[in-house]
Every structure is written in C-alpha cells, then in structure tokens.
Design the sequence.
C-alpha cells in the first residue's frame, strides 16, 4: 500500500514558469507532431501501449501498471508510462528552455549514436556505459569545462533490425576546435550517421525533442532532412523496449556534465 501514499515526485508537483513552459509555448491547438503532447495524447499512448503489451503477453504486469496509472489509482513514475513521461519531459524541456534563454553564447545541439544491439539483445545496451563514453570524449576533445545537458534514448532501426542507443546533447559554449574534435570522435563508432550537429535557433521546438520516451519506429528510409513517417513498433519489439525501459528511472536518462540538479531546477556549474 506504500506506493499509494508516497509523495508525488518534484517533476509533477512543481509546474514550470509560463514563460519557460514547453506545454504553453507549444500549445494544444497546434497540430499533433508540432504541439507538446497533451494529457489526452498521453492517455491515448498509454492505451495503445497497453494493447500492444497484451497482444504479446496477455495479463502482463506492464499493461496493468499503465492501466492503473491512467485510471488514477497511483502515479507509477515508470519511464514506459506515457502519462508520467509527459510530466518529466515537461519539467526537463522547460528547464532546458530557461537555461538557453539565460545563456548568452551560442548553444550547439548534437544527436550522437553511441552503440547498437540486434533485436532480442536490447538488454545489452547500457545507459551508464553510454554516459561514460561521452564523458571521455568530451574530456579528450577539450570540452571538459563546458556545461552540457543531454537526454539518452533508444530507437529501433527497422531495416537493420537493431536497437540504437543515442543521446541528444545541448552544449553551452566551447571553442570551434573542441567541437570539431568531439564531432570527429563521435564518427568512429561505425554506425550510419553517427553524429548530427545543429545550432539552437528555435529553442521551444528543438528542445521539446531533447528527451523522448517513444515506442515508435520509422520503417522507411530518410530522404534528405525529412524523416519518414513514424509507425508503432510490432508487439514483440514493443515488449522488448518496455522491458528495457522498466529497468531505468527518469533521472537515468538525463546526462549532466558541468551541471547539476538542485531541487526542481537544473543549474550550470560555474
């Protein structure tokens, strides 16, 4: 019964200031895919996930957790729960927005692919190992004193039938030479498009994607800068992903380098 009485986590109790609130800056009246997901969107995702989980294994614990959290029996705080994930993403993206508006210099956004595992071996991908690899690259590249905030994710590469562990990074400053060395180091992993770099020009839109807990795939090849349409994972892959997600807390997916969380806010270390 303890789980019914426990205090709600800070990222649900504390709402962002409206000027930094990603849910207000990307409001519900925008089309789906351009707005920040609404409560209704999250509940629909929860229902979809529950359906796929039960298709793979009927009456499993993951599906029951989704149902009970959606019905308001308790707050599950599971990363595979779209409702709880929405609350955490709102906190995280809003904190990134606040920091980006307070920072005077240029902010660089990276998407870095770190490791891959074939279907059925997702458990081999380690979030902790991913963070260790990134720390070493940053230090060796000369970005050891530069603040950086990242979100660690997994996606399914349909054509290759493999899972890819990657991280979205917001780098607050740093010399062009150090950035070049870091990008070069990221290209050595042998994965397709191992690093993508962009300047932060549209903070609400770009940072709203900085950390996702999605259970979709893009089965068709990307053409130029346009991604193919996202489609739901098959029940087998969906269940494998939820099993992996269930081993982690939300904080595990956040990568802080020269930055720390103090209470309900993230601060850059001086």
Sequence:
């Amino acid at each position: 019964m303890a789980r019914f009485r426990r205090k709600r986590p800070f990222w649900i109790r504390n709402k962002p200031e409206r000027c930094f609130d990603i849910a207000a800056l990307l409001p519900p009246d925008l089309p789906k895919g351009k707005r920040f997901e609404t409560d209704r969107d999250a509940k629909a995702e929860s229902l979809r996930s529950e359906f796929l989980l039960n298709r793979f294994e009927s009456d499993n614990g993951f599906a029951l957790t989704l149902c009970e959290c959606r019905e308001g029996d308790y707050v599950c705080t599971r990363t595979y729960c779209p409702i709880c994930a929405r609350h955490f993403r709102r906190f995280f993206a809003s904190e990134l927005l606040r920091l980006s508006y307070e920072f005077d210099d240029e902010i660089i956004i990276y998407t870095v692919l770190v490791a891959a595992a074939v279907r059925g071996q997702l458990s081999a991908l380690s979030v902790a190992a991913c963070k260790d690899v990134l720390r070493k690259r940053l230090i060796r590249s000369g970005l050891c004193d530069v603040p950086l905030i990242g979100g660690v994710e997994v996606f399914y590469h349909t054509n290759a039938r493999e899972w890819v562990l990657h991280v979205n990074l917001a780098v607050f400053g740093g010399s062009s030479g150090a950035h070049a060395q870091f990008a070069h180091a990221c290209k050595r992993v042998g994965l397709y498009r191992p690093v993508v770099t962009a300047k932060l020009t549209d903070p609400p839109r770009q940072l709203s994607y900085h950390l996702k807990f999605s259970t979709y795939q893009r089965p068709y090849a990307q053409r130029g800068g346009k991604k193919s349409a996202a489609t739901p994972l098959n029940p087998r892959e969906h269940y494998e992903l939820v099993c992996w997600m269930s081993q982690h807390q939300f904080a595990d997916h956040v990568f802080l380098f020269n930055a720390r969380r103090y209470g309900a806010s993230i601060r850059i270390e001086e």
